[in-house]
Structures are given as structure tokens and as C-alpha cells.
Amino acid sequence: MAGDVVVVNGRVALRDGTPTGARAGQALRRTAHMPTRPMNAGEARTAVRRATSRQDAVVIDVTQAKGARTARGTFRLTQKASGVGLDMKAFGQLQTAPGWASFTGRARLRPSEPERSVTVILDAGEVVVRAGDFGVTISARR
Prior knowledge:
Layout: E1 5-8, E2 11-15, E3 18-19, E4 45-52, E5 56-64, E6 72-79, E7 84-88, E8 90-97, E9 100-107, E10 116-123, E11 126-131, E12 134-139
Antiparallel strand pairs: 1-2, 2-3, 4-5, 5-6, 6-7, 8-9, 9-10, 10-11, 11-12
């Protein structure tokens, strides 16, 4: 459309559908735990996993109904050594694929800390949890 522009880092990169030649950005690459999979909002989905060790415990029982905007359920992560006691109450989208699932939500790592965004990825036998500067990978075989 005439008059449309795309701005990257403050520089016009595309004007009226034509590249300007400005190269102010960089490619966004995904990590091994950021698979590119289509959303599956047209079907009900679920993610269930439990794992316990001497220091860590994780409980995942999350579902999202067909057509629902957000998931519901339980996600708890306890780490004795670090004092983390994450208990997610507010969930975002749940995405699933064979051997893989991910969901987002809001939770506190510890009762004294502010609520923060949390991303959880179940990839084969691993559970990867990221919440700001906190991150942990736990082996959770089925």
C-alpha cells in the first residue's frame, strides 16, 4: 500500500513495498528449545509430566479446550537448594506436537518476589523452565 513503511531499529527498511537497502537489524535465530510448530487451536490438547529428585520436583497437568483462548491446570516447580517454589496460576496458550509441548503463564518464583512471565517447554524427556534470569532444565522421563 502506498505510504506504508517498515522501520527496523529506527531506520526505514521497506517503503511502499520496496526494500530501501537499510540494514539496521539482524536475523532472529531460534534455540534448540524454540521449535517452529503451528498453533493447534482447533483441537483440545494436554500436557502431563511429573518428576521428582532429591532437590527438584515438577508437576505438570495442563489442558486447553478446543477453541479456548488460554490453558488451565497445574504447573508446580520446587527447588530446595534455591528456595524456588513456583506455582503457576495464570496460563497462556498451550501448544503441543508429538513428543513436545510448550505453555506460558505468570507466577512468582518465591513468595517475596514479584510475579513474572514463565515459559515452560517439554521436549522429549526434558522440562525447560525460563522466567527472566531464572532457568532450569530437568530430566522428566515419562
